[in-house]
Write a structure and sequence with these properties.
The chain is an alpha/beta fold and 125 residues long. The chain has one domain: Alpha-Beta Plaits (2-Layer Sandwich), CATH 3.30.70. It contains 3 helices and 4 strands. The N terminus is likely disordered.
Length: 125
């Protein structure tokens, strides 16, 4: 009888932890997508907004200057585990100039620099 009770309680615990893990994953989807945009040399200068609902639908907003950037943003979001659908509301305007200062190093620029430095160091050793 004790083993049956332990088995039942263990099953409830696993169910609760699965629900908690799913909630954590849902909460982390927006920052995961934003970080991927920041690492992309094609998207990092653009201000792209991401909103993810509890069903896993991502809604993208913002502005880019080329259709390919809009498509890339949508494909990146769709490629994130947990995203089931993407509503891509990003506007494309050919004369759009990103608001970010290109002279200032972004997170993605720093990652690129560190990666190049690591490759060079590994080849020199």
């Amino acid at each position: 009888m004790f083993s049956a009770l332990a088995l039942a309680l263990g099953g409830i615990g696993m169910f609760a932890s699965t629900q908690a893990a799913e909630g954590i994953n849902t909460d982390r989807l927006e920052p995961r997508i934003q970080t991927t945009y920041e690492l992309s040399p094609y998207l990092r200068a653009h201000d792209i907004g991401v909103r993810v609902d509890k069903e896993g639908e991502a809604t993208l907003s913002g502005m880019v200057n080329e259709d390919i950037d809009k498509e890339l943003a949508g494909q990146i979001a769709l490629g994130v585990d947990g995203i089931k659908e993407v509503q891509n509301d990003i506007e494309v305007k050919a004369d759009y100039e990103p608001a970010r200062d290109r002279k200032a190093s972004s997170f993605g620029d720093k990652v690129d620099d560190f990666s190049i430095t690591a490759r060079v160091k590994s080849k020199l050793q």
